[in-house]
Amino acid sequence: MEGLPSVRSELIAKLKREVQDRTY
Question: Tens place of pLDDT for every residue, the chain, 24 residues?
Fold first, then answer.
């Protein structure tokens, strides 16, 4: 499961982008 970390980092980056767009 060495490919998990990369996928996780991509998901986190996507979430951060969505949060920035919503500007909580």
Answer: 566 788 899 999 999 999 888 765
Q: How far apart, in Å, are the Cα atoms of 14 and each of 2, 22?
A: 20, 13
Three-class SS state of 23:
coil
For residue 20, give Cα distances in angstroms to 1, 16, 24: 30, 6, 8
CB atoms within 10 A of CB 18: 9
The pTM for the full model equals 0.51
